[in-house]
Every structure is written in structure tokens, then in C-alpha cells.
Recover the amino acids of this structure.
């Protein structure tokens, strides 16, 4: 079965989607929500199932604030079934299935073995603007990597992080701080260029890319590696 994913929406519309991975991460996620709401911007939060279960009220605050949510796996590890386990946790609180999914580390191969990922109504989402905010400590560097990204245009999907998959609370809380400091300037800079900041549910995704097997499967859990090897044998 072919697997397709999207990196952007329609280029002829001045819409941009700010997306945030690896939460909910209270109170950092709440700080992000406050910045977005104060500027009339919507975001999309790709949440981890384990944090949804640990911080259900933080997840509910995302939803109640009017933002979009997506499935970003349960453990953020390349295990088969990780998206399906996350969907159970997310859907239990959301009251409906999610419509968007982002593969952890953009390792799309795990989607091939997930009924949730392959469901007809699910869209697998990558991004065309990746500031790598999780690896930067200087807020200005995050601002520049976002606003000066060569791919930034109408329909762009920007990948930021309000949380981390780390179980170390101190590191998880500290990691998003530079991004949070940068976020007001990012939002204001995008709006100054005439972009409307929307949730993915307000964007028409186009130009789907068909995934091809790559070397990232070597980082998968053993059962996933075995499945990938079987997939490779079938294609030869």
C-alpha cells in the first residue's frame, strides 16, 4: 500500500500553519496558547499520547482555546502500533478521531503498519519550514530560521516544539523556552507579511508526496525493523 504525506497547503492562499510537536507540556503549552490567542492566531498541536494521559487538563485547554490537534504517536518511538495507542488516548478526551498525524522524527515507515495512519480520513503531515528550534538556545536564531526560511510562502507548514518526548521533567520544561521567547516575533513577522495563521483544519493540503523506503528504519524498534525488511524483500 502506498503512503502519502503533505508538506504544504495551497500556494495561492496566504495561509500559514504554525504546528507544535511533543506536548502537551504544561505550563509551556499554556504559554504558547496565550501568545497565539493574544494575537488572533490558531495553531495545530501534534500531541504525544503519553502526555495526553498524564496531562489531560492541559490537553483540554488546547482544545477549549480553539486550536487544532493531531496525533504524534504515543511514546515518540518507532514502535508498531504507537499511533494507534496514541489515538485511543487522544480520542478518549477529544470525543472524535483526529484528522492529522505527524510521524515522530518524520519516520513514515511506521505509518505503514497503523490502521489509524492509513485510514481514509487521516492526513499525514510533514512541514516545509523546519527551524530546528529544539536544537537552538538563541531565540533570534529561531526567529531567523523561521522568517528567513527559503521555503516560507503561502501554504507553508512550520514545525516548532512546545514539548519534548523526554521523561526528564526539568529538560522537557527548559527545552521550549527559547522558542516561546521567539514566538511573538514569529507571529508578528508572519502577520506583517500578510499571512493568516490558521489551523491545519483551515488549510487545503496539496501536492501529496509518495513515501519511499529510506535508511531511517535502522533506528526503529526490532519488530519495526523486521517489518521494514519484509517490505524491502517484497519490493525486490
Amino acid at each position: 500500500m502506498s503512503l502519502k504525506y503533505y508538506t504544504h497547503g495551497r500556494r495561492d492562499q496566504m495561509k500559514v500553519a504554525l504546528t507544535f510537536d511533543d506536548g502537551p507540556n504544561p505550563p509551556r503549552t499554556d504559554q504558547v496558547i496565550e501568545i497565539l490567542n493574544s494575537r488572533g492566531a490558531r495553531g495545530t498541536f501534534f500531541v504525544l499520547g503519553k502526555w495526553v494521559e498524564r496531562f489531560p487538563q492541559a490537553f483540554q485547554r488546547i482544545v477549549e482555546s480553539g486550536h487544532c490537534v493531531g496525533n504524534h504517536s504515543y511514546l515518540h518511538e518507532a514502535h508498531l502500533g504507537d499511533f494507534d495507542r496514541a489515538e485511543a488516548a487522544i480520542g478518549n478526551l477529544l470525543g472524535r478521531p483526529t484528522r492529522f498525524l505527524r510521524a515522530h522524527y518524520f519516520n513514515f515507515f511506521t505509518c505503514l503498519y497503523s490502521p489509524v495512519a492509513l485510514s481514509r480520513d487521516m492526513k499525514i503531515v510533514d512541514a516545509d519550514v523546519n527551524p530546528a528550534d529544539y536544537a537552538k538556545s538563541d531565540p533570534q536564531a529561531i526567529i531567523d530560521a523561521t522568517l528567513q526560511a527559503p521555503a516560507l510562502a503561502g501554504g507553508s507548514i512550520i514545525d516548532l516544539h512546545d514539548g519534548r518526548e523526554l521523561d526528564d521533567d526539568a529538560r522537557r520544561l527548559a527545552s521550549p523556552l527559547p522558542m516561546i521567547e521567539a514566538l511573538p516575533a514569529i507571529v508578528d513577522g508572519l502577520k506583517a507579511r500578510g499571512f493568516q495563521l490558521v489551523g491545519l483544519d483551515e488549510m487545503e493540503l496539496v501536492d501529496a508526496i509518495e513515501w519511499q523506503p529510506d535508511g531511517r528504519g535502522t533506528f526503529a524498534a526490532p519488530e519495526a525493523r523486521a517489518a521494514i525488511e519484509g517490505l524491502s524483500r517484497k519490493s525486490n
In short: The domain at 4-235 is CATH 3.20.20.370 (TIM Barrel). The chain has one domain: 4-235. The chain has eight helices and eleven strands. The chain has a mean pLDDT of 91.
